Amino acid sequence: MTNTINVVQYGLGPIGTESARKILEKSDNGIRLVGAIDIDPKKVGKDLGEILGSKERLGITVSNDAREVFRSTKAHVAVHTTSSFLEKVFSQLAHCAESKVNVVSSTEELFYPYDRHPKIAEELDALAKRNDITIVGTGVNPGFVMDTLPLMATGMCTKIRSIKVERIVDASHRRLPLQRKIGAGMSVTDFEEKKKSGTFGHIGLRESLLFIAAGLDWHLERVEESLEPMIATRDIKTPYFEVAKGQVSGIHHLISGYNNATHSLSLNLKMYIGAENPHDSIFVDGDPPIDLVIKTGVFGDSATVAALVNVIPLVVASAPGLMTMKELPVLRSLGS
Amino acid sequence: MTNTINVVQYGLGPIGTESARKILEKSDNGIRLVGAIDIDPKKVGKDLGEILGSKERLGITVSNDAREVFRSTKAHVAVHTTSSFLEKVFSQLAHCAESKVNVVSSTEELFYPYDRHPKIAEELDALAKRNDITIVGTGVNPGFVMDTLPLMATGMCTKIRSIKVERIVDASHRRLPLQRKIGAGMSVTDFEEKKKSGTFGHIGLRESLLFIAAGLDWHLERVEESLEPMIATRDIKTPYFEVAKGQVSGIHHLISGYNNATHSLSLNLKMYIGAENPHDSIFVDGDPPIDLVIKTGVFGDSATVAALVNVIPLVVASAPGLMTMKELPVLRSLGS
Predict the structure, then answer these.
(1) ipTM attached to this prediction
(2) b/e per residue, B127-154, with b = 16+ CB within 10 A?
(3) Which of A84, A274, A302, B16 has the fewest Cβ atoms nearer than 10 Å?
């Protein structure tokens, strides 16, 4: 990389602030943080250093005017971390594209948007191509452990009968918004009520499933999905709050797809406070079989930030358009 | 993929014949076997079906005239499996390029040729670009378990201190040429003698190391490599031959690289008859750490064939030039 990539951090929640920190740390590795965007009135107008809890002023003022930030900073890439939902972020992504700024986004629904939001996906692809930029959604999950890594594991096989992916996360160590997302501390009744909203629990499992299926050219004629509460079997305390025995400790989210009765693909996600034996595992029943385990699992918050930052040079080098992780080269750590 | 990819099998040793079989099996998945090349006079002129041990005639006659095969079959891709050594295969690869045929090769030294053979790498890249084709070397090792997969694992990390990759292979179940390559059944004296040839043991470990280092932009100022015999602690019988107690049962090949005293990278390969607890493992001491194990290890012979066949559509879609697995999109199974 000969030219420095100017990066704007778009969204300063827990993931966004951590991403800003990492981009700053890597500023001698071909990337440079040049701007920060957030709509929170408590953040707008402040120096980013203050938002990051540092005493040092960075000379980057948080702004709520994305287009103005892109223009004044000559931005090449936005690291976008504002929401899980594509309808909510469409106009933000469109502003990036119209400003000719590449997008790396943690929006879970963007990881594989063609099923749930085919129209938006088409529009984003057209916008990206017209403005000669690339848009990609990534992270750890969706983004890696339950989709890109299993897909890559199949690359060692000539025949596949089934793929089983499992991720067991102990949410005790995860950020507060995630603990809220999984309903920790709720009653079972409230959980069932909240579930009806459709925006509750882990977002992206369906996207992971359809990403793998698309990569394998499997046409799933049946998809089954369930979301159930995990129930605390004892009183549990986290740095953020307490979960009493009998309350919800998290989620059990399961999705399976079937292709021609000959192929099955299942993704089994449990995220709960106090999970035992946390791990990620991938079993490909193929020729040869692949039986892969990541002990204790990939730690979500820091890995998501890593995925976002590490993909920056790949996105800049990519052909224009809306891309997914299976169109990009293998991810690798940037400036380690 | 709308157009069928015409594939020629270039080399009909154990890996090549298995590759030909798999390409034939996948003939309704956008690839089609159209030709076969080998120099063995016992194979030339025969129908490929006979070589594959099938009663069926395939209408593909084995030829030793590569250019003629490429011309008459309108080949798009050669799956090239003739030798581990780049100097030996250079003219074969050049013929492919000049015939405007993309190359997927099992030549271990081609996996990352820039260190050991920079001049050849440069020539191949120029030839490939001039003829608008892509050349890539891949397989399971080098190609996946000790290089591409570890590199991809680092994609989840923002900071890395060290990477340790280990592959323990029980060679009892592997093809005969591999058992010979690792010196099974030799005396220790013969092993040491043979070692001096420089073409003995596993080929590609140095390539794997330098591939990872290049992917991470690490400039290794020190590389240490050792090749030692594993000694049988009991009499062992394989389907091919016997190894007596005290004879060589295989190899222990270790390579380490160091970058700035802050980073280390080590690849530890043991391939021997009767290996206990065979597995592949990758430990990235990073933020977050990644502790990945493939139980029993990826089975080499069939996975190498899978890697070669699965990469075909990625190579056809790639920009022209000499590529490595880190420039191509994530591998995935073709037509499973």
Answers:
(1) 0.96
(2) bbeebebbbbbbbbbbbbbbbbbbbbbb
(3) A84
- Measured between CA atoms, how close is A190 to chain B, in angstroms? 34
**How many domains are contained in chain B?**
2
Q: Residue B331: its chain A contacts at CB < 8 A?
A: 152, 155-156
Q: What contacts A42, CB < 8 A, 6 or more positions away?
A: none
Kindly determine whether residue B155 and residue A306, on different chains, have CB atoms separated by under 8 Å: yes
Q: Do both A163 and A27 map to the same domain?
A: no
CATH of the domain at A118: 3.40.50.720
The model's pLDDT over B98-110, given as tens digits with 9 standing for 90+, comes to 999 999 999 999 9
- Residue B248 in any domain: the answer is yes
Shortest distance between the Cα of B62 and any Cα of chain A, in A, equals 24
Residues B67 and B120 in one domain: yes
Closest-CA residue of chain B to A163: B336
- The pTM for the full model equals 0.96
At B168, is the secondary structure helix, strand, or coil?
strand
Q: Are A181 and A200 in contact (CB under 8 A)?
A: yes
Containing domain of residue B109, as a range? Answer: 5-139+302-323
- The partner residue sitting opposite B154, judged by closest CB among A325, A328, A333, is A333
Q: Is residue A190 part of a domain?
A: yes
CA angle, B262 then B265 then B270, to 5°: 155
User: Do B263 and A336 make contact, defined as CB atoms within 8 angstroms?
Assistant: yes
Asked if A155 and B333 count as a contact pair (C-beta separation under 8 A), the reply is: yes
- Per-residue pLDDT of A270-297, as tens digits, reads 999 999 999 999 999 999 999 999 999 9
In a domain, B336, yes or no: no
